[in-house]
Amino acid sequence: MSVWKKLITAVKGGANEAAEAVADNQAIRILDQEIREAKDELRKSDQSLTTIMAKRKLAENKVKSLSGSIAEYETHAVSANEKGDQALALDCAQKVVDLRGQCDTEQQFADQFSASEKTLRHNIAQAKSNVRRMEQQIDMVKATESVQKAQVAVSSRHLGANSKMKTAAESLTRIQAKQEQRQAELESAEELAADESGDSLEKRLKEAGISGSNASAEDALAKILGK
Known about the structure:
By secondary structure, the chain is mainly α. The chain has one domain (3-226). It has four helices and no strands. The protein has helices spanning 3-82, 86-197, 199-208, 212-226. Helix 1 (3-82) packs antiparallel against helix 2 (86-197). The longest helix has 112 residues, at 86-197. It starts with a helix and ends with a helix.
């Protein structure tokens, strides 16, 4: 693969990563918005459930009231029949028939409202559970993203610190090498200066124990003893 192809591949890879990062951030925003909309719909569902519950209770109260009226007119029909008032007994019986028809209708309403209430309760509970689960997952994703960003920052600083330490150590080594080179040059210069002044030869004679100063002293001692 040529250098240009590698460069193009690297640029494409960076662009893809950037696009994915933008898409991921956008996905989180979309999920947050959907959660807010879902909660709003759930509030409306709760209001609808409240309305259905109220209608179910009203229907049940009507059934209870009609049942009481039915029992009352049944009693009236028996009393009228016992008194021999057949026409009144028939009227009371007809009233009972009408009330039972109304009661059956209201009972149907109550049953329908009760079934709707049960279904709506189940659906709302399931939806709320799904929303809570999604919220937990979103919170976990956000928390994990924050932790990983912090870890990346720490790792980058650590790598940077290691790189700086390595650079500093290399600089120190170069400085020490330069100092050693300079010290060697200074010592060489001193040796050259000593050779030029004859100090080197005197030093070598002295180290051999035959320096000029020692020879003069021995000659002087010999002369003194000879006298």
